Amino acid sequence: MKAGWFVRGDIDGFFGLFVDNLLQLMLIAVLCVQVCGMPPELVYGRIMPGAALSILFGNAFYTWQARRLAIRTGRTDVTALPYGINTVSLIAFVFLIIAPIYFETKNPQLAWQAGLFACLASALLECVGAFVGDWLRRHTPRAALLSSLAGIAITFISMGFVFQIFAMPAVALVPALFVITVYGGQVKLPLGLPGGFIAVLLGVAMGWVLRWCGYPFFQPVQETYRFALHLPTTSVSDMLAFLANGQGWRYFSVIFPMALFNVIGSLQNLESAEAAGDRYDTRSSLLVNGFGSIVAACLGNPFPTTIYIGHPGWKAMGARWGYSLLNGVVITGLCLIGGVTLVLRVVPMEAMIGILLWVGLIITAQAFQEVPKKHSAAVALGIMPALAAWALLLVETALRKAGASLYDVAPKFGGDLYVYGIISMSQGFMLTCMVLSAMMVFVVERQFLRAAIWTGVASVFSWFGIIHAYALTPTGVQNRFGFGAARSYALAYLIATLLMVALHYYNRGRESESTGIVA
After folding, report:
1. Which of 5, 292, 301, 321 would disulfide-bridge 305, Cβ 3.0–4.6 Å?
2. pLDDT > 80? residue 470
C-alpha cells in the first residue's frame, strides 16, 4: 500500500485538534497571568515555546505510529491518536500547586518552578505506568474505560460548547448545525470540500459581515499583536533549584494522583481508539506520552501533555495521520511567534466550536455502541460521577459570579441540592467512573467475586483520599489526601465488597444445586 501523508479529512481533523489545543493555550495564558501573577514575558517567552515543542514531539510520534500501522495492515482508514495538553492536569496544577505557592510567597518565579517539578515528576510516574498499562487494559471492562470518556464528552465538551453556541447563535449556530448535518448525514460536499473547514469559513464570514453591518456579535481580542520570535530554552536548572529547597515533595500527594489519572485517561483513550478500529501498542504509546511531558518540563512548560480524548470523532471526520503532524507544526509556529492572540483577532471562537461539539457527541455515542447491550447500564452508571463534577463547576461558577463562595453557601442548601454529595462524587471522578462501571459490568455478568475486587479497590482509593475526599475552604474545594481521608466511603465500599463475596458463594451454591452437584 502506498501511504501518503495527507487526505482531505485531515483538514477537518486539523481544525478540531487545533481548536482544542488553542483553547488550552488560551487557558494557560489567562490562568498564569491573572491567577498566578506570572509576567507575560515568562508566559510567552518560556511556557509557550516549551508547550509548542512538547506538542510537536508527541504529534510527530503519533503521526508516524499511525502511518506505520496503516502500512503494516494495508488499511487506509487508520487515524492517529490526538495529542495535546491535558486540561484536567492543567487545572489541578494551577489551583493545587502553582497558585498556592504564589499566594504564599508572592513569587511567580518560584511558583513556575514548582509547576516544572510537578510536570517532570508526573511524567516520570507516567513512564513507570507504561509498563503496567497492558495489564490494566486486559483486566478492565471496555465499558469502564469508555464510560468516563463519555461523561467528560457529554458534559465538559458537549454541554459547555452547546451553551456557548446558543449564547451566540448569530455566529455559532449555523456552523454547528452545518457540522452536525454534514458528518451526521455523511454528506459529500461538492469538489470533496471538507465540512469542518467550510463550517469555520461560514462562521468567520458571518461574524465579520454582521460586524461590518453594525451588529458586533463578534468582538476580536483587543490585545495588540507584536511579532517576536520566542525560542525555547532549557529549564533544568530551575527545576533543580526548586527541588534543592525541599518544597517539591510537599505536593507529591497531588502529583501522584494526577499521574495516575493521566495513565488511566490514556488507557481509556487507547481503548476508545481500538473500539473505533485502531489498536495501538500500549507501552510505546504511554512511554511517548510521558516523554512528551518530560520535554515540556525541561523546556519551561509546567503542564503535562497527553493522549487526547476524541479519536472516534476525528476518525468519523475522515482524518488519518496528517492532521496530527499539521497540528503540531501550526501550534509550534504560533507559540514561537506569540501568535495565539493573532488568530483570535481574525477568527471567532464560536465559528470553530461546532467541530468539538460533534467530537463530544461521537465519543458519547461510542460508549454505548461499542459494548455489549447488557453493559449499557454500566456505561450509564459510569457517566454519573462526571455529571457530578460538571454540576459542581456550574454551582461554583454561579456563586463566584454572584460574589459568594461555596464555603459560605453550602450549609444553606440543605436537602435541596445535596451539594456535599455532588462535591464528594466529583473528587477523583475519572477513577470513580471507571470503578463503578467495572463493578456494574461484573454484577450484570453475575461475576460477583470480580465485582468485589472493584469495590475493594474503591475502598482503598477512598481511604487514601484518591476519590471522594475533599476539604471545603474559603478558596474553594480542595483535595484531601492521607490515611482515612474518606473513611465513611471506604467503610461503605468495604461492606459492599463483603456483600459481593457473600453473593458469590451464595450464587455458586444455588447453581450447584440447580445442576444436582453438591457444593
Report:
1. 292
2. yes
DSSP state of 393: H
Average pLDDT over the chain reads: 83
Band of residue 308 on the pLDDT scale cut at 50, 70, 90: confident
C-beta of residue 235 within 8 angstroms of C-beta of residue 299: yes
Q: What does 270-310 look like in DSSP terms, one character per residue?
A: HHHHHHTT----HHHHHHHHHHHHHHHHHTT--S-EEEPS-
226 phi, psi to nearest 5 deg: -125, 125
Q: Which stretches within 299-413 are classed as H helix?
A: 311-316, 322-336, 340-344, 353-369, 376-401, 406-413
DSSP 8-class letter at 428: T
Dihedral angle over CA of 120, 121, 123, 128, nearest 10 = 150
Q: Please, what sign has the CA dihedral across residues 306, 312, 316, 322?
A: positive
Nearest CA-CA partner of 80 in 58, 92, 63, 55: 63
Instruction: Name the residue type at position 494.
Output: L
How many other C-beta atoms can be found within 10 angstroms of the C-beta atom of residue 164? 16
Query: Residue 14 and residue 275: Cα distance in Å, rounded?
Result: 22
Q: Nine-digit cell at 50? A: 516549551
Cα separation, 265 vs 81, in Å, equals 13
- What is the residue type of 444? V
Nearest CA-CA partner of 107 in 35, 31, 37, 28: 37
- Residue 85, all three cell numbers: 495538553
pTM recorded for the entire structure: 0.72
Which residue's entry shows cell 510516574? 125
Q: How far is CA 263 from the centre of its chain?
A: 11
CA gap 340, 57 in Å, rounded: 19
Residue 206 CA to residue 330 CA, distance in Å, equals 25
